[in-house]
Amino acid sequence: MLQDPMLQVSRLAKTYGFGADATHAVGDISFEVARSEFVCIVGPSGCGKTTLLKMLCGLLAPTSGEITLGGRRVTEPPEEMALVFQDYSRSLYPWMRVGENIAFPLLRQRGLSRADRRERVRQAVEAVGLTGFIDGYPWQLSGGMQQRVAIARGLAYQPQILLMDEPFASVDAQTRADLEDLLLRVRHEYGVTVLFVTHDIDESVYLADRVVVLTPRPTEVQEVLEIELPRPRNQVTTKELPEFARLRAHVYRAIKRPERAPEDVSGNASEKAASAPVL
Ligand SMILES: Nc1ncnc2c1ncn2[C@@H]1O[C@H](COP(=O)(O)OP(=O)(O)OP(=O)(O)O)[C@@H](O)[C@H]1O
Ligand SMILES: [Mg+2]
User: What's the whole-number average pLDDT of the chain?
Assistant: First the structure.
């Protein structure tokens, strides 16, 4: 049990459909996220990560189990939560300018004046380095810049917890590394709690304070790993650390464990496996 859990997930399960057509997506999941913690959830493709995230943010009713945020049970999207999806091209409104896209969810926050909203948008746009583009349209920006707008929208909302579902999966490797560092920086500045879903093992180890490793579907928690790499992290020096290589190989083996072939147990094959971390 954590000292100060912000999010508590208890025996959560989800089955889509009934009878012979049923898909058991989430088996039985329990974990906690502490205030200001950065937790990555990593699991094989199709194991139920998005299903889990949709339940956590109140968009999908679980078949059984319970989620509490700040001590209150989640039954509908909580105001204290913001969500950043993988597909930025579908999550931004093409007819709204960058600033308007970021301001839009703020309209939901009662008691926020127009001046407050404008200031929140200005700060968030500055944090993601898009000040000069506030009056542009999303379609005038590159994919990486559009994803930065989506991050800025999450930040401007000033949620207690930011949920992210493979937010950098559709950008190139260099942009992805830049966005990871941007996220770590703004997370530090805003002090926001982050729950980040990915199937990229390197990314999970690089970003997280703890990594929750999921099994294949119906998914369960296979292992929870403390990541005690020093911060601030750096794309070159952090990834050169022996501890980084050890952790990433450990997560890789944990994910591969259920279907591991006998030859994968040998040192050589495991090293090869660890150098190909994206599932
Ligand atoms: N609305 C739905 N109705 C029925 N089955 C669904 C629905 N959404 C997801 N599933 C099934 O639930 C399982 C888990 O899907 P989910 O999208 O949660 O996995 P994921 O881990 O996010 O996958 P990916 O790595 O591809 O993003 C899959 O077998 C999927 O086909
Ligand atoms: Mg998914």
Answer: 89
> Positive or negative CA dihedral for 145, 147, 151, 152?
positive
Domain with CATH 3.40.50.300 in the chain: 5-80+159-274
* Residues 245, 223: Cα–Cα separation, whole Å: 18
Protein residue closest via CA to atom 28 of ligand 1: 46
How many whole angstroms separate alpha carbon 252 and alpha carbon 204?
11
Token pair recorded at residue 105: 């969810």
Q: How confident is residue 258, by pLDDT bands cut at 50, 70 and 90?
A: low
- Which ligand is nearest the CA of 55, by number? 1
pLDDT higher than 60, residue 7 = yes
The pLDDT, as a whole number, for residue 278 is 40
% of the chain exceeding 70 in pLDDT: 92
The superfamily in CATH containing domain 5-80+159-274 is P-loop containing nucleotide triphosphate hydrolases (3.40.50.300)
The residue whose CA is least distant from atom 29 of ligand 1 is: 46
pLDDT at 79: 87
| Between 264 and 154, residue with greater pLDDT | 154
- List pocket residues of ligand 1, CB cut-off 6 Å: 16-17, 23, 25, 45-51, 199, 217
* pLDDT, greater one: 239 or 89: 239
Q: Which atom of ligand 1 is nearest to the CA of 48?
A: 18
Ligand 1 pocket check: which of 49, 57, 60 to mutate, most ligand atoms within 8 Å of Cβ?
A: 49
In the sheet that 38-42 helps form, which strands lie side by side, from edge to edge? 72-73, 64-69, 5-16, 23-34, 219-226, 210-214, 38-42, 193-198, 161-165, 81-84
CA 52 to centroid of ligand 2, rounded, Å: 9
Nearest alpha carbon, ligand 1 atom 23: 46
Residue minimizing CA distance to atom 8 of ligand 1: 51
